[in-house]
Write a structure and sequence with these properties.
alpha+beta; Beta-galactosidase, Chain A, domain 5; Nuclear Transport Factor 2, Chain: A; membrane; Cu_Am_Ox_Cu-bd; ten-stranded mixed β-sheet; transmembrane; 36% strand; 15% helix; disordered C terminus; 3 domains; metal-binding
């Protein structure tokens, strides 16, 4: 048969050989694909640029065994403090889990700074460190006449004594967790029992058993004694729909509650522009449908309606094609170091901490190892509102009332701070626990390229000199963000390479809206269907203890004024020429040293040591330059104004006194008639301030009339307030001339630039060949939600 011929057998053999070869090739290809698949990550990693180094920065955030003068209380110190306090039978302290308004318990503990002279003797003269002490605030509600007592307890970590610092009237105490919880439960139940049906009909929701349609009393307005005319503790509780975000869903209903120990009574009721003397009176008017009462009808927001108040992406989103934002990186690692709470950067070094009551504080700030500032610290955040609704009309807030320190937490990498920042926690000893409550990411520290020159000059033509020189403005920023319920305050402490310090405050977050009514129109604009955005004034108080070439300083203003002189170069024999001049004005006393900004009388504000002058006889000074000022328009002595007497001045200068620690206190919101801290008295004693240790008290502020673009939250653009501490004849020249992040370009031959250029870069000229480290924040918060959201441990007050 033909199929069995030799030719046929040879053909079959060739096909079998080809098939075998093809099979081998296919197997080889499959193996190659598998090898490549499993090796792809390694191959890609080898081609991927390396991650930028982090080897240069020395970052040690561990608690020190022997904390420095300015370090916050350590865990070891808190344990020793607890052991001592709860062993003192005379204090009669109850455990945090058992606190009531009528018990004695620890409300707050924080570091008590030593006397400045003792601290400087240690820092400058290598004398022993002063004993570390704590100030302990105890609410003594179980005494026959309840009071608040502050004790100095020490030495830490094993205290042996406590000394009374001051006693404060019990009515002045902040609203704390036991009181807030008790009064809130009571008024919620009473309002539901007496007026629940009226509220349901008016607002489409209930106070109790409300499922996903709830009414809540969350925001409060303190009624201080100067406002009420009586020494009583009264608070307005506002009603809101409980949806995101409730401050943009206010309702025109509020209760004025009198708090007397554990006895809480409702004094007044406000509903839709009308005032009632009790819940019963309101319910009677409502149920009888009396002609005088105009009923309100506002439906509970559904998901679509509440969109205006929700912080979520809107459509159509932009850009249409997503591209990542520009980022800054640290190509050679961190150029600053942290040990505990001590920072070193370029020519700077300083300490910092987070005061539980007052927020961020910086100490012993040095440039080229010379102390410029002993202390810079936030003292108070105040907001003064206006309105027709009494809950808004009397809303003058002093935010130390809620403790500023614990409101600083949960900074988010890539948004609140650069991804490459160092994030630092803060701990507080509060009423909720015997253990320190730790808030992660309370501070961030980072270098920042401002992407503009710190200095530059371009001499283009040969006639002008033919050169270019410029320096990048790269700064170190210590940042914290304080969220007081609805408003978020960003605080930056910025260190420039030329010896300048900038302190900046920016407000963002939700406005505190008012239920709309025509009566609110003089105080703000209607921003949405049911809300008004009322005018308010933000005020920030700072303490700046300058030590310029030591503690023996003077305060001088350079007063700028117009002058005219004969103009002999004019054909008019009577011609005058107008210009400006300045006069040196040494301020000799505290009353003579207050400063209120006046465009007609501009001034430079200088601090200096008279014995330290340069070769030309000029004082080696530091200048205070303020760029964020607003005037408090409430007349002096009226209402809550005395508690903010620091706001009467953009700057006041006083002689340093250890007892004049702060311009405000956590009692300010209740004690306006007779403030615990009467800042005006710092000035009224009119101490001489020539050749003394001087303190500057700086007020920044901004009037805010909300507009629709403040929905859902106020943007930060244009809301910056800042002041600078700037060298003024202090150095022989700009000290940043020694900084290496500069460059110069000049011709090799000034007569013929075509012969080539000399390009001088004083830093490392090698090209950038690394990527920033990956941002692992998303994974971290999934593992530990407490980094960003409350995890069951409450910190600070209930509000």
């Amino acid at each position: 048969m033909e199929a069995d011929t030799p030719k046929y057998r040879r053909s079959i053999g060739r096909w079998r050989l080809l098939s075998f070869i093809l099979l081998l090739l296919c197997l080889g290809l499959i193996i190659a694909v598998i090898v490549v698949w499993f090796a792809k990550d390694k191959i890609l990693e080898e081609k991927r640029p390396p991650t930028c180094s982090n080897e240069e920065g020395i970052i040690d955030l561990s608690e020190p065994d022997n904390p420095s003068v300015f370090h916050d209380l350590t865990t070891k110190e808190v344990k020793g403090l607890n052991k001592y306090l709860y062993s003192q039978k005379s204090l009669n302290l109850v455990d945090p889990s058992k606190t009531t308004v009528n018990s004695s318990y620890v409300f707050m503990v924080e570091l008590q700074l030593p006397k400045k002279a003792d601290a400087l003797n240690h820092l400058q003269n290598n004398r022993p460190q002063p004993a570390r002490e704590a100030v302990v605030t105890i609410f003594c509600g179980d005494l026959p006449k309840p009071v608040v007592k502050e004790y100095i307890v020490g030495p830490l970590p094993n205290p042996v004594k406590h000394t009374l610092k001051r006693t404060i009237p019990f009515n002045y105490r902040p609203m704390n967790i036991p009181e807030y919880a008790e009064v809130l439960a009571l008024i919620t139940q009473q309002a539901n029992n007496i007026a629940g049906e009226a509220l349901l009909e008016s607002y489409g929701a209930k106070l109790v058993d409300c499922d996903d349609k709830c009414l809540v009393f969350k925001y409060i307005t303190i009624m201080s004694s100067p406002v009420t005319g009586e020494d009583a503790r009264k608070i307005w509780f506002w009603l809101s729909h409980f949806v995101e975000y409730y401050v943009l869903h206010p309702l025109d209903f509020a209760l004025l509650v009198r708090l007397d120990g554990r006895k809480y009574t409702i004094d007044r009721v406000w509903y839709n522009g009308r005032d009632f003397t009790s819940l019963q009176k309101f319910a009677e008017f409502y149920d009888n449908n009396k002609v005088q009462l105009r009923k309100e009808k506002i439906d509970f927001p559904n998901a679509e309606q509440q969109m205006f108040a929700k912080l979520s992406l809107r459509e159509p989103s932009f850009p249409k094609t997503f591209k990542r934002n520009p980022v800054q990186i640290e190509p050679d690692g961190k150029r600053y170091s942290i040990k505990g709470r001590h920072v070193k950067y370029m020519n700077w070094d300083f300490d910092f901490r987070m005061s539980s009551a007052h927020g961020p504080q910086l100490y012993d700030i040095r440039y080229q190892n010379e102390r410029i500032v002993y202390e810079i610290g936030l003292q108070e955040l105040s907001v003064f509102y206006s309105g027709h609704n009494p809950a808004k009309k009397f809303a003058n807030f002093f935010d130390t009332f809620g403790l500023l320190g614990p409101q600083a937490k949960a900074l988010v990498p890539g948004v609140d701070c650069p991804e490459h920042a160092t994030f630092i926690s803060a701990s507080h000893y509060l009423e909720t626990s015997k253990e320190p409550v730790v808030f992660k990411n309370a501070f961030c520290l980072f270098e920042h390229n401002k992407e503009m020159p710190l200095r530059r000059h371009h001499s283009y033509s040969s006639f002008q000199g033919s050169f270019y020189e410029g320096m990048e403005s790269v700064v170190l920023i210590l940042r914290t963000l304080i969220t007081v319920i609805n408003y978020d305050y960003i605080f930056d402490f910025i260190f420039y390479q030329n010896g300048v310090i900038e302190v900046k405050g920016v407000s963002t977050g939700y406005i505190l809206a008012t239920a709309f009514s025509p009566s609110e129109r003089p105080y703000g604009f209607q921003l949405h269907d049911h809300i008004n955005g009322n005018i308010h004034l933000h005020l920030f108080s700072f303490k700046v203890d300058l030590d310029v070439k030591g503690t023996v300083n003077r305060y001088q203003t350079l007063d700028i004024s117009a002058t005219d002189v004969p103009n002999i170069y004019s054909t008019d024999k009577n011609a005058r020429y107008h210009q400006t001049k300045f006069v040196e004005n040494l301020r000799t006393s505290e009353l003579n040293a207050t400063y209120k900004f006046d465009f007609d009388h501009p001034k430079y504000l200088l601090f200096y040591n008279e014995r330290e002058r340069n070769k030309y006889g000029n004082p080696r000074a530091y200048r205070v330059l303020m760029k964020g000022m607003a005037k408090q328009l409430v007349p002096e002595g009226f209402g809550n104004e005395p508690a903010a007497s620091w706001a009467r001045y953009q700057l006041a200068v006083t002689k340093h006194k250890d007892e004049e620690e702060h311009s405000s206190s956590l009692y300010a919101i209740f004690d306006s008639e007779h403030p615990v801290v009467q800042f005006q008295k710092f000035i009224d004693d009119n101490d001489a301030i020539v050749d003394q240790d001087l303190v500057a008290w700086i007020t920044m502020g901004v009037h805010h009339i909300p507009h629709t673009e403040d929905l859902p939250v106020t943007h930060s653009a244009g809301m910056e307030l800042n002041f600078y501490l700037s060298p003024y004849n202090y150095f022989k020249e700009d000290p940043a001339m020694a900084a290496r992040n500069a460059m110069r370009i000049e011709p090799k031959d000034k007569n013929d630039p075509k012969k080539g250029l000399k390009i001088m870069r004083y830093d490392d000229p090698k090209k950038l060949q690394c990527l920033p480290p990956d941002n692992k924040y998303d994974e971290e918060v999934k593992e530990d939600p407490g980094v960003v959201l409350e995890s069951g441990e409450s910190g600070g007050t209930a509000i």
